[in-house]
Design goal:
Length: about 850
Amino acid sequence: MPDTPHSPQNDPAQAGKTYQQGAEANAPKSGERPDQGAAPSPNHYRSDPNRTHVHAHIPAPDVAGAKYQHPVLAQPPEALTGLHLEERQKIAAGVTAVLKSMQFSWSEAGLTRGTQALLKMNQKDGFDCSSCAWPDPDEHRSVAEFCENGAKASASDSDHRAAGPEFFSKHSLAELSRMTDRDLNNAGRLTHPLVKRPGDNHYSRIAWPDAFDIIAKELNGMTSPDEAIFYTSGKVPNEPAFLFQLFAREFGTNNLPDCSNMCHESSGSGLTPTTGLGKGSVTLNDIHEAEVLIIMGQNPGTNHPRMLTALQIAKKNGAKIISVNPLIEAGLNHFRNPQDFMNPLKAMGTLLGGGTQITDVYLQVRIDGDMALLRGIMKHLFEAEDLNPGQVVDRAFVEEFTTGFEEFKQNILSTSWEDIEEISGISRAQLLEAANLIARKQKIIVCWAMGITQQRQGVETVKEIVNLLLMKGAIGKPGAGTCPVRGHSNVQGDRTMGIWERMPQHFLDSLEKEFGFTPPKKEGFDVVESLKAMRLGHTKVYFSLGGNLLAAGPDTEMIAEAMRRQKLTVFVGTKLNRGHLVTGETSLLLPTFAHADMDMQKAGHQMTSCENSMGVVSQNKGVLVPVEGDQLSEVAIICGMAIATLGSKTKTDWVAMTENYDVIRDHIARVIPSFEDYNHKLRKPGGFYLPNGPRERKFTTDNGKANFSKTTLEKYPLEPDQLVLMTVRSHDQFNTTIYEYNDRYRGIHGERRVLFMNPADMQARGIKAKDLIDITSHYKGEQRRVEKFVAVPYDIPKGNVSAYFPEANPLVPIGSVAKVSNTPTSKYVVVTVVPTAANNDVRIQEREKMMAE
């Protein structure tokens, strides 16, 4: 195989070197297009609506009764932690965000260690924030290039406390499962490899070679490689992600589910057939240049706080913002930029002022009503076009770059205003107000997240978003395009690296040429299919590279039963979570480094890389000395497992890749288009852009055009007393990691087991504020019930309710998924709510007896 130029593998003088770009003026500024290469970016999101699924019916688990049946709790404990209600806040960030950032960082990591981590997070010579994938500025970066939630994530990763073998010898799995998720996370960093053997109720220490031998024995003893599931968290950097998929495919399976199956799979499934690329088309500078921004199904103030800075810049440049969300969120109202406190001229005004107004038109849509809302806006736009021919629809763009316009147009015009208003919950007049902001503009960006993708019609709604942008010619030019805002730090990069159960043939052919083996052709399982197969007893080994699928996935008790049916579960992680406690017959808990940790190997201080939401690949180089212990890097763990499992069957030099990650990147450079000369490009400050066809109006669809879609608007009638539930995060959590029991923007303090309800819905059910309630979900005649939640009156559309995940995840049926993407519908769960029933003393006694035994 040819050597790659500029690789430190070939030229030791390059090791650790960072190339200087010269003046900051060389970085692309607002309105300019970045240098992104000529090759089209690989498409890793092609969806086949006729794909094979696991069709066997899995009955609903006894969600409420599970706590009496299993000593290890899969759900967070029901004990309430003390709810205190305050008024919902109307301004996000500000001085409170600064204080909270410092508090978390110094309390968990210590003053010196915590400050060191914060000052290097998201810097060009530092490490990538392990929380969200919001991009960093191309040009100047602030000394404090992080948000409150990034600071919490960094503090958690930098924790100086240790959860070592002594901790696990003291606490059984059953005892640990009765701790809250916050307290499990706060137990400290995992320090040594641990094993739970058959019949044990404790994890105990094990040597790394013995752990690898257990994995190899179980994997090699299976009837088929497809009896193993290899799950990936979006936190995993590119290099270990590439190795993980390589190992799975050399072993013989495409069972590579990952967290994107549960989040933006619907985005990829909708964007690929319409634009040719399952990723967004905009850059951070485009956000600054936009004339209109539409933010749908997203809460940036909590989930992507640094996005608020970009929105603030856009507002100062004259942009109008339309927010679409069932909940009124502080971050979509006003924003006080914490960075302004470092400017003496702005600090006092920021402290005392009302901040920047973010939203111009707020559309408080009903859950799952976004497609109808979009149709209403476009129906108004077509009416405006009739009155002002050629001034609303970009006819030139439509004729040159698209297909399917007339069929799409008739589909919109044939939709009745009655259906639009009923399904969306938004009046025709309100939709006209939004349409008027859009009508004369062409620099339009639509941003969306889980509030769109986790609907039943998630894929169709993404296609409707594309329809709006295409009719306006708002794609492929500065200030315009698609912006799916991704969650975890490298969830987009993991897909690029091959973490997908259905990678295209050209990728598999490149793997075969590079590594000398024949990859399996049979499609693997995604998350939902994997869980069904595990529950049905079709698999024997579950390997999790990071993450917490038990808490992140739907139907929690079904997942728990699926885990218990495995011969071996393997969890790689930095800190303890509930998913590590519900195990197979044998279980391994393997400690690894966080993004902030120095990774020293034979070739020296190693770096990895991540791809952000806008297709920029940049370096991740830890700065902290790891907590004392026996951790291995993710790369070393994967390579150790591969060597033990594959033995003489592999031609791959796993040892070389462990010793020097440049070797991995040289392989990636030869396998994945657009990564040529990877080691050289990665060492440029700020990294490099991947090619993006739609960004340049190069639509790599089957017909070479951007395609309008004729979507189907469906009504879903409810039974009397039924409501629609969506799950959300609190402000003091990131994904399934819980930092505290508070959600200050929504006025919640000291409690997570809450249900946000419209006051009229509460009154109709005889429920008062802070009453205890039980929630039951209904799906195809089956029920799932959670108990002892607290009712909270809130500004949410009538007929809609909301609760935090993972607490509400047991209500999400495994069979309820978005069409095409197979994404669980956590944003559409049909429920009923009643006051909590009296405790059953007999069952409590039975549970206590079980615990004693």
